[in-house]
């Protein structure tokens, strides 16, 4: 692709680094910004810069947050005896959109995947165990994608949490095997949360 400006070429190259964005889409986005008011583009630039420099991760659940403790963990209206374990922030957002869950979360930051070199030590597992030591938690729900990596992670966590006298459940498998949680429709996902089953039962 030939560019009439080095500045244009550099901007397109940066946008093309985003997932799912090819050069043609990147060029369309850059040209769109060029046609916007300078102040509007500055606001866009500032928002991205502040996101990268000021974003925090909740010290309790590891969800993306503006503060050290996220709004969900800080809320007295949430059921703190119920922890839903998810892969990342996108899954928190997906479950919150169902309006079917009133507990708190624990974001692992990934799934166990030996093929990708990701092991338990790379995930927020130890902090999950720490959260259970004060005996305030009554149930842990595994809400992980129905993939090989998701099932491997659930199997590992189940063994890790057996030392605690808590209920361990997993979302009902109205979600097809191989399905990514973030792409499941809200009705199916909400129903899976409500009709969750004991993890041991899901093995049969």
Summary?
Helix content is 41%, strand content 13%.
Q: How would you sum up this structure, described in words?
A:
- The protein has nine helices and seven strands, in the order H-H-H-E-E-H-E-H-E-H-E-H-E-H-E-H.
- It is of the alpha/beta class and 204 residues long.
- Strands 4-3-5-6-7 form a five-stranded mixed sheet. Strands 1-2 form a two-stranded antiparallel ribbon.
- The longest helix is centred in the N-terminal third of the chain and has 17 residues, at 38-54.
- The model has no long low-confidence stretch (mean pLDDT 89).
- May play a role in DNA repair. It seems to be involved in an RecBC-independent recombinational process of DNA repair. It may act with RecF and RecO.
- It comes from Mucilaginibacter phyllosphaerae.
């Amino acid at each position: 692709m030939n560019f009439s400006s080095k500045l244009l070429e550099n901007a397109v190259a940066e946008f093309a680094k985003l997932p799912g964005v090819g050069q043609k889409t990147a060029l369309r986005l850059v040209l769109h910004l060029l046609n916007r008011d300078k102040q509007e583009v500055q606001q866009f630039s500032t928002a991205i810069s502040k996101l990268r420099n000021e974003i925090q991760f909740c010290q309790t659940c590891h969800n993306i947050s503006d503060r050290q403790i996220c709004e969900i963990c800080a809320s007295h209206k949430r059921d703190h005896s119920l922890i839903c374990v998810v892969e990342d922030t996108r899954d928190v957002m997906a479950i919150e959109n169902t309006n079917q869950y009133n507990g708190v979360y624990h974001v692992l930051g990934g799934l166990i995947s030996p093929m990708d070199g990701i092991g338990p030590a790379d995930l927020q597992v130890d902090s999950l165990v720490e959260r259970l030591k004060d005996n305030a938690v009554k149930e842990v729900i595994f809400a992980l994608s129905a993939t090989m990596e998701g099932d491997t992670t659930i199997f590992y966590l189940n063994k890790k949490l057996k030392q605690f006298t808590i209920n361990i459940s997993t979302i009902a498998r109205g979600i097809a095997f191989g399905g990514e949680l973030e792409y499941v429709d809200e009705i199916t996902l909400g129903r899976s949360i409500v009709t969750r089953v004991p993890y041991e039962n899901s093995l049969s």
